[in-house]
Amino acid sequence: MKDKVVIFWFRRDLRLEDNVGLQQAIISGYPVLPIFIFDRDILEKLEVKEDRRVDYIHQALSSLNRTLHNYGSTLRTYHGKPLEIFEIITKIYDIQGVYCNRDYEPQAIKRDELIDSYLRERGIQFNTYKDQVIFEKSDIVKDDSTPYTVYTPYSKKWKSVLAPANYAPVRVPLEQFYKSNPVKIKDLEEFGFQKTDIVFKQPNLDLAIIKDYDKKRDFPGLDHTTHLGIALRFGTISIRSCVAFALKHNEIWLSELIWREFFMQILYHYPRVVADSFKTKYNSIAWRNNETEFQLWCLGKTGYPIVDAGMRQLNETGFMHNRVRMITASFLCKHLLIDWRWGEAYFAQKLLDYDLAANNGNWQWVAGCGCDAAPYFRIFNPTAQTLKFDADLSYVKTWNPDYEKNIQIPIVSHEEARERALRVYKQAL
């Protein structure tokens, strides 16, 4: 006789507390078998096997698993393609239902449709829930039911319909898990990855940072940002707890959380933006795509100290300050006239908090081809940005300490680059 269980499939929600799908699995009345799949389709695309993000996931799962051991259960981890894993699991257990939280990326939607079809053929319900956002899909739309494509009206509507029930935490009893002997999760080496220098810590909401977020967030030398991007990306913190905290302590940080959901609903409604400009007329831009200049940008050797500092911080740590992300991205698209997709792909390789919707949305915003109302003729001057946001050069000196000793002639003049960008964009449009 197979044991009757329901499956909870962890994905972008690597926590036990305040987890909607997990709560629903538990109240089903059946023992909950928790699983995680190291998806071969995703991992095989990662060329560098010392990937901090994979290590972060591994450590977060290990922490979660230790908690499960205290309740007489364990996390089952698998390595393979999700459909193949479910083919294995359905042979071992009498599955009464599969539960998980929704993902809105195009490939994830296709994956879930495939799993749903497979389970439905076997009479197994595939139950998905909203968890990683406050509002999803068409929750926030215009009066004519079409999606918002500009942030400000979206944000106003988002705030107008927000109610305490939207961000109230959900209680997750931890006594209903399937009882089993403790099992260590798969080692990184088992699927071709290696340990890195990242150390997983349970994320927390730091009042000292968030209360002054609006005053200090733009100054990279202060490093006064939450660093919660990776926690939100992999769900080691609940979005509901973040929104509740932001409502109490800082409206500007709340606006950043709304930007996150804005880009997610854009990706959901317009999946073509993964490879295409939201404003299709921008596909006519005659990008120079000089590979030598692209490599200099990647390596932080453009001759612009703040651009080079940002790229070096990214390469060394997997993180880059938000303001500097805008400066470096604008420099690539406008100063070097290199296709935003090149930069987007490079950030996707390097960023710890890489999120397809946000990365794509912000790169298109900088390039002027995105869904928001950013004019193409807005071109950040790296020198002016430095004077305004890093006047004492504390950020530059931290990440580009040799800039004074090895003074490099900028690979392009700001004025000449600006004029060229305006000319090329105007011709295309």
From TrEMBL:
Cofactor: (6R)-5,10-methylene-5,6,7,8-tetrahydrofolate; FAD
A Pfam family assignment: DNA_photolyase
Keywords from the UniProt entry: Chromophore, FAD, Flavoprotein, Lyase
KW Plastid (keyword) present: no
Photolyase/cryptochrome alpha/beta domain location: 4-134
Keyword Repeat carried by entry: no
Superkingdom to which the source organism belongs: Bacteria
InterPro entries xrefs: Crypto/Photolyase_FAD-like_sf, Crypto/Photolyase_N_sf, Cryptochr/Photolyase_FAD-bd, Cryptochrome/DNA_photolyase_1, DNA_photolyase_1_CS_C, DNA_photolyase_N, Rossmann-like_a/b/a_fold
GO molecular function, one term: deoxyribodipyrimidine photo-lyase activity
PROSITE patterns in UniProt: DNA_PHOTOLYASES_1_1, DNA_PHOTOLYASES_1_2, PHR_CRY_ALPHA_BETA
This enzyme's EC code(s): 4.1.99.3
Family label: Belongs to the DNA photolyase family.
PANTHER family xrefs: CRYPTOCHROME, CRYPTOCHROME CIRCADIAN CLOCK 5 ISOFORM X1
Protein name: Cryptochrome/photolyase family protein
Biological classification of the source: Bacteria, Pseudomonadati, Bacteroidota, Sphingobacteriia, Sphingobacteriales
